[in-house]
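Our preliminary data section would be incomplete without showing what the modeling component actually yields. Below, a chain of 496 amino acids is followed by its predicted structure, encoded as tokens that our downstream tools consume directly.
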Amino acid sequence: MVKLEAEKLQNFINGKWQEVDRSTAVINPATGEAIVQVPLSSEKHVDEAVLAAKKAQREWAHVPPPQRAEVLYRVGYLMKEKKERLSQLLTKENGKVIEEARGEVQEGIDMAFYMAGEGRRLFGQTTPAELRDKFAMSQRVPVGVIGIITPWNFPIAIATWKSFPAIIAGNAVVWKPATETPIMAFELAKIFEEAGLPKGVMNVVFGSGSEVGNALVHHGDVQVISFTGSNDTGREIAAACGRQLKKVSLEMGGKNAVIVMDDADIDLAVEGILWSAFGTSGQRCTACSRVIVHETVKVDLEARLLTRMKELTIGNGADETIKVGPIINEAGLAKIDSYINIGKEEGARLLAGGHALTDGEKQKGNYFAPTLFTDVSSNMRIAQEEIFGPVVSLIPIKNFEEAIEVNNSVAFGLSSSIFTKDVNRVFQAQRDLDTGIVYVNAGTTGAEIHLPFGGTKGTGNGHRDSGVQALDVFTEWKAIYVDYSGKLQRAQIDVE
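Predicted structure:
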């Protein structure tokens, strides 16, 4: 069993590890056991981190991007070397099954190498000037100090989506990780230190959203906030940043659907639904929580899903045989349970699950049985609101047009999927599904790091994590004109 090197974590500010007086316990959701103490920092610690970042950023911005990339390459190699340790610790603090934890760490490794490659790109544009003897171009420039606020469900992957492009672009970062899963931040900060990142370019301040997060959002020397989390918090952050004219990137909720048409490969659809709905115990913003199924194959799909759901093994994700791990905490369990009651009251028919697993069924921990509702109408709350748990609602439809309409009828727009063999429907779905991610003959999860990640409507505010598009969040565009005519030339002014 992998062990932590410390009983209490420390902030990482200006290249130094700093003790904080107040702390709280981090609980393993699979066992209920306390595994480490995480600091509860104050506004004072945020001020210290931002001051260090502001000073370090001035010098870091002058380091040639290919040299910045060398640090990220070292980070990637160190993450690769430590992959199993990181994966085991991730499962311990987050609860996700070990194969998923390994996949998440690999995503961070991939992101390091990918963004390091941008150190030799960071492309601008050269363009013809409208006047003689004049040169025109644009280039990306760093913004300054970046505040990133990350969630507990992907404690290392999402952090790399945000911090790596910010750093390669010449910015400095102050990172507030989730208090439920701080170990990955602690470990990644140590990797940055070992890789030789200059002091102050990456700072980690542990603590609550109400204190540390709020201080970061309102700090006058933080130019960008990149946030992943709930819609309610995201709206508050957007409003606060708007009042300050501060750049903000939001990645929030999802109510993702898998469409199963009458010509679909049903066995393949079942595989996609199981992985998308019950992987990470449904605690993904891309999780499948709706299945929009053609009425002619509904009964068949239900039967096959129920059979396969019975085979799902539930328990501590550190066990290689387990496929469904715990819910992050008791509050998460209570929220899921409340939606089970809502679904029943709305008239949905419960086919499987629908309850937390008691100590008699499982070891102590936060476990919820994989759940399947059927005969759900698209206007029910369980078909409209994000549950963030292993709960799937089957919504019958009569035709392709209705499937698209039902998919698009929610307030979110992150991910969608369609299973069909009809190439015409495939291309219509790609065009008409109003989500930032569309899968064909696959589930709603499995984003690759070289493509933009994010969604439409209530899912975000137009920015994207991952891919080269992430650089748009952490850079500004500068237009440059060089006039070598030796005289004053005025653009757009007629000259006789």
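The two ends are 81 Å apart (CA to CA). Residues 11-252 form a domain with the Aldehyde Dehydrogenase; Chain A, domain 1 fold (CATH 3.40.605.10). Preliminary results of this kind motivate Aim 1 of the renewal.
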